[in-house]
Amino acid sequence: MYVVVQHRFKNPEIAFARGERLIRNEGAPTGVKGLQFYPSRDGSAATCLWEAPSVDVVQRYVDSTLGDSSENSCYEVASEKAFAARPSGINEPASGGARPA
Fold first, then answer.
1. Is residue 55 within 8 Å of residue 36, measured between CB atoms?
2. Are 74 and 17 in contact (CB under 8 A)?
3. What's the whole-number average pLDDT of the chain?
4. pTM here?
5. What CATH number is associated with residue 12?
6. Cα(53)–Cα(55) distance, rounded to whole angstroms?
7. Which regions in the chain score pLDDT beneath 50?
8. Which of 2, 3, 64, 77 is most buried, most CB within 10 Å of its CB?
9. What are the C-alpha distances in Å from 12 to residues 7, 42, 69?
10. Given this model, what pLDDT does residue 51 score?
């Protein structure tokens, strides 16, 4: 399944430092992989797309990694209604998981 995470950063500097683990899929539970990362220009928020066996496993992984630096809202994507096209100007990941643009 696909899971979207919407982050509201309480402390962007700490959240981005801790978030490097998420970007690299470091310590990710089995079957969990970050696919896309879309940070806001001002650094106050980000939206991510994950592939995972459940919403709960992503919620726990993200919450435990980012701690009190971010409020994270996760939900399952209704894949049958979703669409995606790669926008120009978005970078390919260097390796492993999602990479910031």
1. no
2. no
3. 90
4. 0.84
5. 3.30.70.100
6. 7
7. 99-101
8. 3
9. 10, 9, 7
10. 97
